[in-house]
Amino acid sequence: MFFDIHARSGNGDTVIMDDIAKMEEQQGYTIAVTVRGEWYVIVSFLLFLVEEVDGAEQTVVLSMTRNADSSNS
To answer: With contact defined as beta carbons under 8 Å apart, do 23 and 70 qualify?
Structure first.
């Protein structure tokens, strides 16, 4: 989370949100709209995880993609 206008989260915090009702494109940005009507701007479809592999911490980067047909999301 970055730049939360409600100041519920600090910059860089990971948040858990309500279920996504729809995703849409607006002015080149992907917007996730929750079932409660909250809007989130998706700035990255990457997920960074730190895992221990053979006794050493490794950063794992996962990339999500969004189906162009948002009715299947």
So the answer is: yes
Task: Indicate yes or no: pTM above 0.70.
Answer: no
The string of DSSP letters for 28-63 reads TEEEEEETT--EEEE---EEEEEEEETTEEEEEEEE
Cβ within 8 Å of residue 33, ≥6 positions away: 20, 21, 22, 23, 24, 39, 40
Amino acid in the structure at residue 43: V
Q: What is the pLDDT of residues 26-40, one digit of tens each?
A: 888 889 999 999 998
CA distances to 11, 54, 68 from 38, in Å: 18, 41, 22
